[in-house]
Amino acid sequence: MAKQANSKDENEPQAEEISNFIKAQDWPALLRLSIIPHPLENQAEEGLQEVFRSASVISIWQRIWLCLYISYHSVVSTPTWLLFEKRWTSEQLDTLKVLPNASIIERSLNIDFVRRSAKSHQDRVLKAARFVIIAAERLGDKHLSTFASLVEVTHCGVHGDLPSAVARLIELHEDLLKSSPHTPVINAGTLEVLAGIARPFLSELTDKASIEYERNNNYEEARQLLLLANLGWKTFVDKDLPEDVLQRSRTMQAYAILLSKNGDAEKADAYHVFAVRMLRQLVEDTKGGYQVEYASSLRNYTGFLFDMGQPRLAIHTAEEAIEIVKPLYARDPINYCDLLAGLYNNHAMALIQIDLPGEALSSSASAVRIREKEFETRLKKGSEKLVLAMELYASALNHCHRMTESKDVFESAIATIQDDDRTESHKKHHLLASLYLNYSETLAKLDDSEAARQHAETAWIICRDMFRQGISHSPSLRMKASEIFARRLIPTLSAASTAEQLDIAEAALRMAIEVSEEIRVGTKSPSGLQGLEYSLSDVFDGLIQVLLIRLDRGRSKEDIANEVLKFSEMSRMRSLSSVLANDYCQLEGVVDGKLLAQLRDTQANISAMNNRLFYTDHFLESTDLKIEEMSKVTADFLILEKPELHQQRHQYENDLKAIQKRIEEQIPAFEVLNVFTPLELSEIREMLPDEQTAFLYFHMADRVAVCVVVTHATVELIEYPQTTREETQSILREWAAAYQNSCDSGGKLNSMRWGRLMRPLLDRLGNLLFDSVYPKLPNSIQSLIIVPHRELHSFPFHICPGRQPYKFLCDEFSIHYVPSFSVLSQCLKRSRGPMERMLSVRRTADLEFLEIEEKMLTVAFGTNAKYLDSTPEVVHQLRAASAEIDIFHHSGHGYYDQDDPLNSSLVFWENGNVKVTFSVQDVLETIKFRNATLVVLACCEGGIVQPDEVDEHFGFPTAFLVAGMKVGVFAMWQVDDLATAILVTRFYERLLSGLSPARALDQTQRWMRGVPDDLAECLEDGPATADYVEKMGMFTGISDHSLRADCESVLKHWRDSETPPFQSPVFWAAFFTSGVSQ
């Protein structure tokens, strides 16, 4: 019995026994019990820690026992275990105090060994290492603490948190460098151990970053990992070790690729160049070694340069790499065929980009020969790479206008991949789809439109089936297939098209739009986003065309109008939404970069989810068929898991609220920029101010032109013939030429000449567009809110001819404008504050009548008029004051940048060639008018926007409305300074009397041209104009002698004139209101 009892005590210690060991501070016994598996193991370990915390002295014996503790948990071996079974003398322990340490380190820091160890052992090793660190700190033993930390980091990096392990290694390295002069035992060997552990971790970190971005589309996480890896290589790299240099350059290239995908081309270029230079130096240092790695880096850089629109530098870089690889390929074609063929392909694509198709043909032909040789040498083990080279070669032939040869190469490539039973199925289908699409383009150029359509349809079906079966996920190819197929199909559609043809067309178009949302979320490059929007403009137009054809197929007018308006709004707002979701420059450097990236990504995800739900919902609503009754060609593209989509959107919205709350902790006034969502027809009607107002919503495209007339009770769809868009574009070109011909060499407008040239163009435009609209307007309509589209933004509709002879449209209706329904919806949500506090930037010296205008502003607003001096600091002052004003007024210079609408600017200060400007992009990115209601840009070209398919919104009207204004007054062309001063004076006079800005401008324009306003007042002739000016004191107290003389001359001229001085529209019609009309 006693023997059994003893056996029980040995194998399963009792709680009382452990308590006694703790009281006696018998830490060796506790240590033994803490590593023997038994039910009270944790209690023994806690007791051991308690003893060490309370022990006044920790001896060398304890240190060796701790080392053995780590050794046991690293690998259970018989010699180590025996150390716990006998008592050693002090002499024996002294002989062991180095040896166990070395063996422990060797075992515990060997990464390959750690990888093979059981997970259960890893947890115990981490616990042991952390315990030793605490004990070593009490001992003051830096040596033991460092190596215990290394054990912890090694095991954590292999089986736990790799980024934390790398960060800790960098920290240890810095600590060692600081302490090494005072601690001789910590030497270069210790630092080398650190580097040895870090190297494989850093390589893994680079791989992990690539996976994080490619699989999870998590840019910010990938960026942080690569920054950490780059810092690690910078810390541990040994310039004398080529592999270290090579791995660091690999990390820098990975970071460069990531940056370029996110649109940060400048930083990406810097990292690419740095990596290339490192490898070039490595080639020199090793006397010709590592040439393949150097050429590979040049290939990566070539691809980047091509994507960033620098084809000439890409060509030079590719040629350098080709010269390096050619002799290597000659000696070993199998191992270097990939690199050389890829370089030739990059070279060819760059040559095509600068319109050198002959040279491109030579390079692509070289790539094909390399791939053909590889294909034959490897006994036809997969034709994927050969077919890719053939595809590029066929495209080069296409650019050389050798269509028949291109057709033959495409057919050969298609046959090659079709006969290939070795290439993986998803790759094979992907190649076939791409080949059919590009072959379709060649056939179209050969005027074989039916064959082109058939091949585009084949490509689309392949992509659709791959997506449905889940064998491939290539959003860009699916979108391209849908887009090209739709483009081939749309010209064949007409009122005679069958229901099946319309179903197929609508399915392809909707798939292109839906897939584009997937692509847009992951596209950070501005050029990439713009290219995406351009490619989609035809898709939206085609979908509207299909909807209008369905109008005569039993669909109600209300339903069709609802969808036409929604898709047109989507096409307008996508580009603007991208700008708003990605531009929070005011937060850069203030808010954590990771949080800012989360904000941008979450907004992009919400926008994409809204759009995808819309496309799905409205296709289901547009058909009477149930899902199970739909043909596959119609239903396959739909995302049918709507509850999951709604749940995901709800999660994104919650995430956005949480992000906003975190940012508000740092910036209390922060406001999330709006993500625009489609509006229902019922919601659009609710935005009408009264029953006497109608919306005129235009959509102008190459194959479809329509005006949707919306009133409280009715909706009308007015479809124009195809020639209408051609005619409006012709009028726009003539309009631009007439304006240019009316300006002198210095850019100053000759008002009289401009007035004569614009009139016939507006007569043509009015007859073209409004003759069909008038019959559709109810007799009760008195006001029109016009929503222009594309080139129509350039025209002042309010002075187009009315229904009655010699009348303008503004004589019969009150005319107001809005950029889009989405922008109007946002403006209507803002409360209108008092029109009391006005802010203006002081006049520019070369605009002489601005002194008069400023004087009148002071009269109107008194002490509530605040002026900022034109200095280099004025932009910062405006941003600071923007939250404390009601009205922002600017009458200085402004200019429109046709090449870059976002760069169109107000000029606040200039000195020679140096200017301080405030651009459209500045307004969108950095300013919030949280309390302001009205902006008045009484300056040159302040209201012009881009008459473009994608960038039509990028002008000051939309920018200021998005930035917080409720309504704005803008100018479409240069206006006479004196006329502007008088118009602005009267406008504010009427505004402060209680009229809305739209109404105040409408009455002011009538008054100026000599037509009685609602007060029965007007500038009916020259003397009446002179009387008004004198009554207001506009010309009194002028400081400038020359200006005073000019004013006296003008007054004398008016006194002798019997006609209204400003009767011509050129003096008043440039001004219009945009935003909320009432």
As a percent range, the share of helical residues equals 55-70%
Question: What name does the CATH topology of the domain at 827-1075 carry?
Answer: Rossmann fold
Summarize the main sheet.
6 strands, mixed
CATH architecture classification of the domain at 827-1075? 3-Layer(aba) Sandwich
End-to-end gap = 102 Å
What is the average per-residue confidence, as pLDDT, rounded to a whole number? Answer: 78
Low-confidence stretches: 1-9, 72-108, 182-186, 618-641
Protein name: CHAT domain protein
InterPro entries: CHAT_dom (IPR024983), TPR-like_helical_dom_sf (IPR011990)
Domain CHAT: 760-1075
Characterise this structure.
The protein is α/β, with parallel strands linked by helices and 1078 residues long. Among the domains are: 2-196, no CATH class; 687-817, Nucleotidyltransferase, domain 5; 827-1075, 3-Layer(aba) Sandwich (Rossmann fold). It contains 44 helices and 14 strands. It has a six-stranded mixed sheet, with helices on both faces. A five-stranded mixed sheet has the order 3-2-1-4-5. α2 (15-23) packs parallel to α4 (41-54), α13 runs antiparallel to α14 (219-236) and α39 runs parallel beside α40 (956-962).
